Amino acid sequence: MTAKNRESLFDSVAAMSSSPQAAEAPVRTPALQAKTPVIDRRYSAALDRRDFLKTAPLPCLAACASALFGTSAGASLLAAPAREDDAQYIKEARFYEKLPYKKTKCKLCPRECVIDDKERGYCGVRENRGGTYYTLVHSRVVTAHIDPMEKKPFFYFMPGSTTFSIATAGCNVNCKMCQNWEISQVRPEQVRSTYVPPARLAELARQYRCASIAYTYSEPVIFYEYMVDAADAAHALGVKSAVVSGGYVQADPLKKLCARVDAIKVDLKAYSEKFYKEVVNGELKPVLDAIVTIRKEGRWNEIVYLVVPTLNDSDQEFKGLARWVKSEVGPDVPLHFSRFHPEYLLKNLPPTPLATLERAKAIADGEGLHYVYIGNVPGHPAEKTYCPRCRKVVVDRMGFTVGDVHIRNGKCKFCQEPIAGVWT
């Protein structure tokens, strides 16, 4: 293959290079993909054969590459170190305290890392340089996809629309079931990045007719500065912003974030401190507090609970969670129980039995929640949205595909019951 042809091939898959399937749950059914490249070549470097095979995110792309290049595709999603000048990604952090002896204390997430000069926080993407704290990942995009909104999943935020999904490297927890560990558990210099400043990101979202930008795949909290700058640029062009987060963030930055974005989905890993300590390396209470804050600040919020066999699948946890949701944020907040698939450090566990997911839904329904879903089970009736009053289907879904929507002006078309959500 000639160099020119190789560059053309890179153009056609640039948006999918070094990309995970989804942040919210392992997806085992085909997803909608970008129709055309979404990263402008002005901001990208051409891949050689070895780099392309390392970063091919989908088996079909890897197979095509194998045929074209005459070699077998590698399985690793890790790419070569970034070739760009790192200085363009560095901005002063927004939430930290300066301490004596050139130390800094991060005030972004509940860890409150105290960092010596020339050291980094737990997330690996924020660094103390001479007593000033910096983010190293502003505009440092490691993956970009055009996704259906239902993939996040957001079921009540502009259903049927597409969203321009991006992420940087890094995370402030270490979930043993993470399927995106190749980007979440590495430092930014360990993966190939593309420089996509906020204005350019907003332009790309509008160019490819995406109703929103989704900050997803890794943990958006750790690229906070980039996220809020991008949200501002997007709003200027009429593009909304949706955040997919673990919710491990302090109240002050979260409140300021709520003023800049349109929706936040929280991945609630479990309803027990034991699980958060042993499986997530985090804490439950700050996440619960974050969900309450999002609701109080008036941002649209949905909750996903990945059901991991033997670890967070007891009736007691399901009941406790459902009661907490109803009492603290209300019965109209959607709750998604998603099927686990063996990933990362929990490959010893089986996928979640369907009966367990149906039991979780039945318990939550019984506690009075209005919108409870079963995720990662395409074709299940619990993918659809039913009116809590007349019980008719108001949003028909099959996997990531939305069919008929029977909601008019925020109300059920059949009985006029208000249906909470952001519909336009």
Write the layout of secondary structure elements.
Elements: H1 3-13, H2 49-55, H3 59-69, E1 91-92, E2 96-98, E3 104-106, E4 114-115, E5 126-129, E6 132-135, E7 140-141, E8 143-148, E9 162-167, H4 181-184, E10 194-195, H5 198-207, E11 212-215, H6 224-236, E12 240-245, H7 251-258, E13 263-267, H8 273-280, H9 285-296, E14 300-307, H10 315-328, E15 335-339, H11 354-366, E16 372-375, E17 385-386, E18 393-398, E19 401-405, E20 407-408, E21 411-412
Parallel strand pairs: 9-11, 11-12, 12-13, 13-14, 14-15, 15-16
Antiparallel strand pairs: 1-6, 2-3, 3-4, 5-6, 7-10, 8-9, 17-18, 18-19, 20-21
Task: Report on this structure.
It is a single chain. With 424 residues, the protein is an alpha/beta fold. It has three domains: 3-69, no CATH class; 91-135, no CATH class; 140-412, TIM Barrel (Alpha-Beta Barrel). It has eleven helices and 21 strands. The strands form six sheets. Strands 8-9-11-12-13-14-15-16 form an eight-stranded mixed beta sheet. Helix 5 packs across helix 6 (224-236), helix 7 (251-258) runs parallel beside helix 9 and helix 10 packs parallel to helix 11 (354-366).
